[in-house]
Specification:
- By secondary structure, the protein is of the alpha/beta class.
- The chain has a single domain, classed as Spore Coat Polysaccharide Biosynthesis Protein SpsA, Chain A (Alpha-Beta Complex), CATH 3.90.550.
- About 40% of the residues lie in helices and about 20% in strands.
- It contains 11 helices and 9 strands.
- Strands 1, 2, 3, 4, 5, 6, 7, 8 and 9 form a 9-stranded mixed beta sheet that branches.
- A hairpin with a 5-residue loop joins β6 and β7.
- It is globular.
Length: about 260
Amino acid sequence: MKISIITPSFNQETFIEETIRSVQEQNHDDIEHIVVDGGSTDGTLAVLQRSSRLRWISEKDSGQSEAINKGFRMATGEIVAWLNSDDWYEKNVLGDVARYFADHPDCMILYGDVTYVDKGGKRLYTIAGGTLSYDRLVASPDSVRQPSTFWRRHLITEHGGVDQSLHLVMDLDLFLRIGRGHRFHYLPRNISYYRCYDENKSLSLGRLQVEEIYRVLRKNSVRFTPRTLRWLGTKYLLTFRPVKRLHEMLRGARGQEVFIP
């Protein structure tokens, strides 16, 4: 069972080699890794040129969403996923992913655990457990586990690729469209490592992220319950630095692990 991994990239010389290595050193032979680069001006192209068993293109684009859709069109595997150029896969995990799809013909979309790390790769925390569903995504859009999610390629034809007008939550939009008609299956193990740091766009553009989430929920005709509205309101308030600092202080005083997406 062939797995196609799409990696959108732009000026990620620092991290992309680790991303590529994590795909190439998997315990599954039939992997197609496609890197769609947006015309990097750093050393990214040198890394791509010296990487074997890699399909890649480099040309200007409108951003990550366009790059992902280009990769989807290039993909030939039965199973598809995208892995950003600063994230990486757990060792020996794609073999388990392929076996699960082979053993469960009814599985259209599969996810596992994801571990958040800092810029240097130090572990922060893990999001684990089989709790993901369409209703969960609606109630808590941050529950998306994009780098640890795989789906059958025909769903791209059925539901379309990612919305290129979105820059931060195109994964949420895609998974809502898929999840409306298909159950999320869960593989109980860590699948990927997601890097969190100040330059990461989903962290630095928090207010735009909330606005895009609101647009996506409306686009998918989601009914706004009090819980959803409270979640959106809290998320928006936390984009203001004084509120975020106060929240972190209160959580830290209670001895809780602190991370605000």
